[in-house]
Each structure stands twice: as structure tokens, then as C-alpha cells.
Write a structure and sequence with these properties.
The complex is a heterodimer of chains A (278) and B (192).
Chain A lengths: L2 H28 L6 H9 L13 H9 L13 H11 L9 E5 L20 H6 L16 H5 L5 E3 L5 E3 L9 H5 L5 E5 L4 E3 L7 H7 L9 H5 L5 E4 L2 E4 L1 H4 L15 E3 L7 H5 L1
Antiparallel strand pairs in A: 1-4, 2-3, 5-8, 6-7
Helix pairs in contact in A: 2-3, 2-4
Chain B lengths: L1 H12 L10 H6 L4 H30 L8 H23 L1 H7 L10 H12 L4 H29 L11 H16 L8
Classes of the chains: A alpha+beta (278), B mainly alpha (192).
Chain lengths: 278, 192
Amino acid sequence: MDINALIVSMVSMGGMGFLFSLGLSLAGKKLQVEEDPRVALIREELPGANCGGCGYPGCGNFAENLTLGKSEISGCPVCNQEAADAIAAILGVEVESRERQVARVMCQGGLDETAKKGTYAGIQSCIAATLVHGGDKLCDYGCIGFGDCVQACTFDAMYMSANGLPVVLEDRCTGCGNCASACPRGIMELHPVSHTLFVLCKNEDGPKEARQTCLKACIGCGICVRAVNEGEMIMENNLAKINYDVYGHQTVLPTDKCSTNCLVVVPAAEQSSEKIAA
Amino acid sequence: MKLMLLFLSAAIVNNFVLSYFLGICPFVGVSKRVSSALSMGLAVTFVMTISATVTWLIYNLILVPYNVEILEYVAFILVIASLVQLVEMFIRKVSKPLYDTMGIYLPLITTNCAILGLALFAVLREYSFIESLVFGIGAGVGFTLALVIMAGIREELELSPVPKHFQGAGITMIVAGSLALAFMGFAGLIAN
């Protein structure tokens, strides 16, 4: 082997690399762009998950827009109060306290509750399944059960139960809303943690069809609406809805009036990550 | 005359994008707006021109005399990568919005095969220094031309009733293919 060629290669490539890097570092000094020093500080405080919940591609862009005054600190749904306060201190503004949001699964129609209309053998995703005759479950409004929401969760806060329904681990959920936008049926909804009473159904069919479709469907009987005070709940398209603005955090709950058990209280600490570990 | 022909050949007849199908990635990626396509084209033209001359110098003054032509790929990539870095710094300094528009495609000029292809073609065809320079400018102009034509068509397409299933990537591919077909009409007018 020609030792000379080896030395020539090393020297020539090394020399070239050195020259170029020298030129680049000089150019880098000259062409340096002054960045707002607050951007780096804010980026430190942001969650850094780049989940996109704020509407920007990542935490970096969001931080930049914060310093430019183009977005609000509350634009980040993931930030806890502590981080929000720290960012507010960096920006020199007041932050209003805001209640933590948590994703809720607004359907109880798992494999045990609702029948299947056929066998679906296509791509295992909710969006693909809805394109083929609206999924394999009989209910055209409920959870399809392929877990697009679980896939979308960047915080490991969701899993699919054995019954084929997504479960949210409340203590890990940051309320970024990725699951809500992933669900083709709008089953995932963000609610403030203080909301505990839910109508866990989206079925807008009439009583007969709804009852045939799912064991835990809202059949639109309206008993709950009559049981509470005027305006606290409303009937819309055969579906009972809670008017949280009026209902607030009432303790008198008409859950026992619901014959199909779809008006339920979700205890605040129902799901926690310790439960899975156990 | 010979240089003029060389320029026309690189720019139109043997267009890098539409005849050799090199550098397709930014051709599709940065051709949504004419303005950004034009600035991308100019950035690539700059890198092409400088790299064509610098690689010629390196090849003929270092690699050939010392018999290490085998290093041409490494050396050329080194030149191109450094130049792209420089362009990136410059654009970021001069125009932040432009920097954001070009996004990932700006650093990706490094791996743009049109530029490495240019340097390798120049070596293969044993161009002189002046010829390499003209070849580089011509190829850059040709690249810009292809990008701007494509962007112009795509801007029009946004206002056209494209059938649902052709929208987006589909119609873009069809347009690119038609453009390449049109440029094939020049084939053979000038060899190389």
C-alpha cells in the first residue's frame, strides 16, 4: 500500500476542512443573527414535547411568538401553572390562572355494550375504518375502537382497555387536545377537571334504534332533563346535554334516573397511572 | 460561441431538473409560490456557480497532481456543504421570512444531487475552468427556470377546479411529468 497516498489524502482533506471551517466561523461571526435572549429562556420553561397543541409546529416557534406578543401564554394547553408563572415572569406580564383541562372519553360503547355490523379487516385505524361504511360497530356515533387517540397522545396518557375503549390517565393528561383532533367521531372532549357529571354518549338516534345499538346509549327519554332545574340540561337531537355554565358543580345528581347508565359521574381520581402499574 | 452553447445546453436543452431528473426534491418541495421558488433558485444558482469553480480548482490543482482523484466525492461534498452553510447564514441574516419559507429545503441543498452531479459532470467532461464556470451558471439558471415555471403553474392550479382525487400530490406529479415532456422537445439540439 502506498503510504504516500495516505498522507496526501489526510493532509489535503484535513487542510481543506480546516480552511472551510475557518472561513465559515469567520462568516458566522459576521453574519450572526441577534435572537431575543428571552426566546431561549422561555423554551427552557415550555414542556418541550412539541405536541403542537398551541398551533405552532413546536415549542421553539411558540416561544418566539410569545416574545413577539403574537400569542398568549394560555395558548400552550400543556404548561402547568408553575411554568406559566415562570414564563410570565420572563415576559414581565401577569398570567391569569386557568383551570386544568383533561380529555374525557364521551362514549361507553365498548365491545361488550355495542354489537358489530360486520368484520372489518382493513387498516387498523379509526379514520380508515370510518371510510369503510362507518366502522364495524353498529353505532354510527360512538367510539370505533382502533385507538387513533391513543396513537396521537404524545404524553403516554392513554391506553385501550380490554373492552376496546380508550382510557385517559388523568394525572398524566395535559389537555393538549391531540386526541380530540385525532378522533373522527369527536368522542374525545376536553373538559375542566371540575366537571364531573357527563352524558357519555353521542348517539343521536331515536329511542328504539339507540337501544338496539348499544346497551349504554342515550335514548333521549328526557328523564334527566326533567329531574334537574330549568336550563341545567337540554335535549338536543335525541341526546341529553349538560349546560355546564348553569349546572356548575352541583352535588344533586340525577344519575340514578338514567335507565341506560349513560349519565354518569366520573370521579376526579378515577384513572391514575399507578393503576396500570398495579 | 462554444461557451454560449454550453450555457444554453445546461440551462435549457439538458436541463438538470427536467432532462436529467436531478434535484427533484426542492423542485416539488419549494414550488408552491413563485417568489420562494425564485429565491430558492437563486440560492442554488449561487451554490452551483461557486461549487463548480471551487471543485474545478480542487480537482485540478490538488487531486490530480497528487493522484488522489478517488477523493473527489468527499472533497466535492465538503465544498458544497460549506457553501450551503454560508448561504444559510446569509439568508437568515438578510431575510428571516425567506429563511422560514425555505425551511428544511435550504440545508437540504447540501444533498441536492443536482449540485454534486454538476461537479461530477464537469470532471467527467473535462471542462476547462471557464467552461466549468459557465456550466455552473447555466445549470443554476436552468434549475431556477424549472422551479419558477413549476411554481407559476401551481399558483394557477390553486384557482383551478382540479378533480378531487387529483388534488395535491397527484396533480403536481402530472404537471412535473408534462413539463419534462415539453423539455424533451429540445433533446438532441445540442449534445451534452
